[in-house]
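A note on notation is needed here, since sequence and fold are reported together in a single record. The reader may check this reading against the record printed directly beneath this paragraph.
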Amino acid sequence: MMKRLLLTALASTLAVSLSYADQTNAKVVIPITKTTPVNGKAMYVNYCAPCHGVDGMGAGPVASALKASPTNLTVLSRNNHGKFPDSHIVTVLNNGADVKSHGSVEMPVWGPILGKMNVSNSQDRMLRISNLSRYLDSMQVK
C-alpha cells in the first residue's frame, strides 16, 4: 500500500516536473506538499528523488530534462575518502550549491520552496536538514 502511494506521488511529481521545470528561471516552482521534518526518507523522496532518483544514483524521472546530470548521491562518502561529508551536505541544504546542473545556487525546482521552509523556526529547519543528511548518509554504497 505504501509502495503504491509512493509510486503514485512520484509519478505525479514527474508529470508536474516535466510540465514546469525550467532551469533558466529559478522562480518556476512545482507545487508540493510540505513533509514532516522528522522523516528524512519522505523528504528525500518528495524533494530530491525527481532529479537524483529514488535510489540516489542521479537518474530520477526528470533528470533527462536537466542541462547536466544530477549528482550520484550514493558515492558522496567514496568521493570524500570514505567519510560522509556531513558539514558539506548541511551547507548545501542550508545555502544551496554552486553546481552546474542546478543552474542557480538553489536547486532549480525546489530552491525557492526549501529556502522558505521553517524560516521562522530554526529548530525545525535544523531537524529537517539533520534528518535529510542522515538519510543521505544511509544511502552510501559500502
